[in-house]
Design brief:
mainly alpha; globular
Length: 303
């Protein structure tokens, strides 16, 4: 949803600093160019420097640093541009519009259930996709089966924060605010959500993660559009990643490639769980699309 605000925005500084980034297709393309080129240059420089000193760039600490470096140029660029615009504009579009209150508990619970249900339903694509290549499987295992601290920080903390900031907070927000000269919105919300979800899928660099990421990105985008809350999408992203990470730490499930394997091929149980998941997805989608915008400051917006 398009949320205008006066110059003073009461929010976390990290989020507020980007509320004046310009809207439109061109700013998004430039932003993506900075993200891709700047991130590759910094990460490449780190790998080259480590190799020059005879160090292994594939170790967990350096992989974590490399992941952070991917976002540094885009973070700095968007902050500088937003700061310049802040001196010119009296109004801004919030990157996040959600102040947590007790009455929001049911919406948070629904968002979590929506995410978990989607994760279960997406297991069905494993029956369509070809087997995961060994090199991708080894990479995923290295992320989940290595040092638990590095894995948790990277998968459960940094990925939700940075990727939601990138795909929903910056890209989707900018596209949703794209206006014509007469003040009308030029980008349809559905198209903006699809574009942001596609970029979210592409940054995973393979179809085995990319397709689920695209579907999750559609859900995250819908929640962001309907609530204006980046915090909710960060939470949903955290729940999705953390669930996968936790199950990967359980010895009984380490050799399971999907949910069907976890159920030991029990078809009736698997079908029942999938049916429940689809019901939750349907209900959550209905609740999200019932109103044009869910204003959490109003009492009537409760489940």
């Amino acid at each position: 949803m398009l949320i205008k605000s006066k110059r003073k925005i009461n929010n976390f500084n990290f989020l507020t600093d980007y509320s004046w980034y310009p809207s439109g297709v061109a700013p998004v393309l430039i932003f993506l160019l900075v993200f891709i080129l700047g991130g590759l240059i910094l990460s490449g420089a780190l790998a080259f420097g480590l190799k020059s000193f005879g160090l292994d760039a594939t170790t967990e600490p350096f992989m974590l640093i490399s992941y952070i470096l991917l976002f540094i140029p885009a973070l700095l660029y968007a902050k500088i541009v937003s700061a310049i615009n802040r001196n010119k504009l009296k109004e801004a579009y919030k990157i996040d519009d959600f102040k947590l209150r007790r009455k929001h508990g049911l919406w948070i619970a629904l968002s979590i259930l929506f995410t978990l249900a989607l994760g279960i339903a997406l297991d069905l694509i494993n029956f369509i996709l070809p087997p995961i290549p060994d090199y991708i499987k080894k990479l995923l295992e290295a992320l989940t089966n290595g040092n638990a601290i590095y894995g948790f920080v990277s998968i459960c903390i940094l990925a939700p924060l940075l990727e939601e900031w990138l795909c929903r907070g910056m890209i989707l927000r900018s596209l949703l605010h794209y206006k014509a000269k007469d003040g009308s919105t030029k980008t349809r919300p559905a198209l903006a959500i699809v574009v942001s979800a596609s970029i979210f899928a592409l940054i995973h660099f393979n179809i085995w993660q990319g397709i689920p990421a695209f579907v999750m990105g559609l859900a995250f985008g819908l929640v962001y559009y309907k609530t204006g809350s980046l915090k909710l999408t960060i939470l949903m992203h955290f729940v999705n990643n953390c669930t996968a990470f936790v199950f990967a730490q359980i010895p009984a499930f380490k050799d399971s490639e999907n949910l069907f394997d976890m159920f030991s091929g029990n078809i009736p149980l698997y079908c029942v769980v999938q049916a429940i998941a689809l019901l939750i997805i349907g209900y959550a989608s209905y609740r999200l699309t019932k109103t044009p915008y869910i204003d959490f400051n109003k009492e009537e917006n409760s489940i």
